[in-house]
Amino acid sequence: PKYILSAVFLVIAVALLAYLESNSNQYSYAISILERSAIFAVVALAMNLLTGFTGLFSLGQAGFMAIGAYTVAILTIPVAKRPDVYYINGIADFLANAYLPLPAALILGGIFAALVGVLIGIPVLRLKSDYLAIATLGFAEIIRAIIAAPQLDRITNGSYGLKAIPAFPNIFWIFGISALCILLMVMIIKSSYGRAFKAIREDETAAEAMGINLFRHKQMSFIISCFFTGIAGGMLGVFMRSIDSKTFSLTLTYDILLIVVLGGLGSITGSVVGAFLLTALREWLRFFDNPLIIAGFSVPLFRSGFRMVIFSLILMMVVLYYRKGLFGSKEFSWDGIYNLPRSIRTKLSEKKLKKSGREGKANV
Question: Can you list the alpha helix ranges (DSSP code H) found in the chain?
């Protein structure tokens, strides 16, 4: 039954995407939300692979996304349009006619991000906890500063950014690439390497005593995370069609971290569901930014920026009631959905028993 339900869900999802694609002009806004959510799902799971499954707290995601995005943008902008993009100092000679199809450019963007991850990982992965987070955060800012440097104008176009990036042909491209990336990460997490990552997360001393090479596996987790983060950055660049160094600021990293924490550290489905929920919630709350007039009276709270106040309050409520995130370290399952009413009844009965026990003690 579980496989049948999964197959039915997949068919419904594909049919929904096909319907949206066939009516793309009417549902362009909904399509953009779904596409952005799919991209964030990939980078959130890549961060969760490092933070939730290996126990390494890194804040360098925006930097690695920038590497992937610029690699894909430089190699996919049509050769004929490059003089209009690099209109200040021109493009470097070795890049003038360099062109790759989108799938190859995405893979190369992921490889470049992974190579930078190798160089960065050698010094920083010997650090722990907050020190690792600060170091990776600093490297992300260094990458962003290098991209915007005037000395690289003929490669990255400096602070002017890159435009005229070809868009995805249709919605199936983003969802297909995202699904493939997520599937590959799931396979890694469920492999022997994934079990080694979890052992390091639980107890490094015990993991080392079991024969696990700590630095080697930490570096492997870091490189894999950088690779998929670079691919997600390339997808974001193609989705936006215009990028600059400000696109990959610290705010982007914090948004991804928020998805991971609220979805649940160590939960694959938590990262995916969290990406779709948070992206959709932010867009749905936009009506709070518009003035509201009731019977000629303008409600003072409805103004630009009030959306983020409501968004923050909702997040606080979620954190208060789901301290480990929506999924915690668990995964979605059809059995869990089937047993949900029973578990709710059990929890309610346990609360009643505890309450009656406290009242009995008070009467005594």
Answer: 2-22, 28-51, 61-76, 82-85, 102-124, 129-148, 153-156, 171-189, 192-202, 204-209, 214-240, 250-263, 268-284, 306-321, 334-338, 340-363
The β-bridge partners of 162 are 243
Contact 53, 266 (CB under 8 A): yes
What confidence tens digit (pLDDT) does each residue in 56-111 have?
888 889 999 999 999 999 999 999 999 999 888 888 888 888 999 999 999 999 99
pTM value is 0.87
The pLDDT tens digits for 28-55 are 989 999 999 999 999 999 999 999 899 8
Both tokens assigned to 23: 């009516």
Indicate the Cα dihedral angle 158, 163, 165, 166, nearest 10°.
-170
Phi, psi of 162 (to 5 degrees): -120, 135
- Tell me the chain's radius of gyration from C-alpha atoms: 23
The answer to whether the CB of 50 falls within 8 A of the CB of 217 is no
The whole-angstrom separation of Cα 85 and Cα 101 is 19
DSSP string, 74-112: HHHS-GGGHHHHSTTT---GGGTT----HHHHHHHHHHH
